[in-house]
Specification:
Strand content of chain B: over 45%
Oligomer: heterodimer
Shape of chain A: globular
Order of helices and strands of chain A: EEEEEEEEEEE
Number of helices of chain A: 0
Largest sheet of chain B: 6 strands, mixed
Distance between the termini of chain B: 41 Å
Radius of gyration of chain A: 13 Å
Helix content of chain A: under 10%
Radius of gyration of chain B: 13 Å
Structural class of chain B: mainly beta
Distance between the termini of chain A: 35 Å
Number of strands of chain B: 11
Helix content of chain B: under 10%
Chain lengths: ~110, ~110
């Protein structure tokens, strides 16, 4: 089925560990995004990508790394997890004039 | 810097009522505006997308309007149902395919 898939659905990790959140879309959308959602802050953009090998920082990029070697994949890596990165992470994709499509999210807890 | 505000933060209505959710934004130079629905523990589902050149969009019982000059959008829900209970978010985009700036959302509860 066409769509956008995030994995894992839930993740618990320890402070200082590296963790990678995966995102895969089957529409061949050009644009992909990573947001985090926190109570009191709403949805905030971490990184986005306009095409393969083109990425740029969003509002809250510190502590995160992204790559986009293939159009369909956009992994997000937390280089050294901190408790402040406990959040729900959403991946999304779109084309030039299409609505933004979201995955079901990854709930990350950093202990 | 674009800021998006949604009022009220929460709304409870009886089933069958028509209702309006409000969204305001500070910079009128937008490319588009989208309304989303989010159910608890789920991702966001796009409801309506309004391009900057459009005034409104309709889908079933939903109608979204856009007034760029005043920096406002409304989402009208007709004949509300308990299944409409969710958080509704609006978001504005500044350029084609561009990042969206989200409001904090309105949590809607429709009572049977």
């Amino acid at each position: 089925d066409a769509g956008i898939t995030q994995s894992p659905r839930y993740k618990i990790t320890e402070t200082g560990r590296q963790v990678t959140l995966m995102c895969h879309q089957t529409w061949s959308h050009s644009y992909m995004f990573w947001y985090r959602q926190d109570l009191g802050h709403g949805l905030r953009l971490i990184y986005y990508s306009a095409a393969a090998d083109i990425t740029d920082k969003g509002e809250v990029p510190d502590g995160y790394v992204v790559s986009r070697s293939k159009t369909e994949n956009f992994p997000l890596t937390l280089e050294s997890a901190t408790r402040s990165q406990t959040s729900v992470y959403f991946c999304a994709s779109s084309d030039s004039n299409s609505p933004l499509h979201f995955g079901n999210g990854t709930r990350l807890t950093v202990t | 810097k674009q800021e998006v505000t949604q009022i009220p933060a929460a709304l409870s209505v009886p089933e069958g009522e028509n209702l309006v959710l409000n969204c305001s934004f500070t910079d009128s130079a937008i490319y588009n505006l989208q309304w989303f629905r989010q159910d608890p523990g789920k991702g966001l589902t796009s409801l309506l997308l309004i391009q900057s050149s459009q005034r409104e969009q309709t889908s079933g019982r939903l109608n979204a309007s856009l007034d760029k000059s005043s920096g406002r959008s409304t989402l009208y829900i007709a004949a509300s149902q308990p299944g409409d209970s969710a958080t509704y978010l609006c978001a504005v985009g500044g350029w084609v395919g561009g990042k969206l700036i989200f409001g904090q959302g309105t949590e809607l509860s429709v009572k049977p």
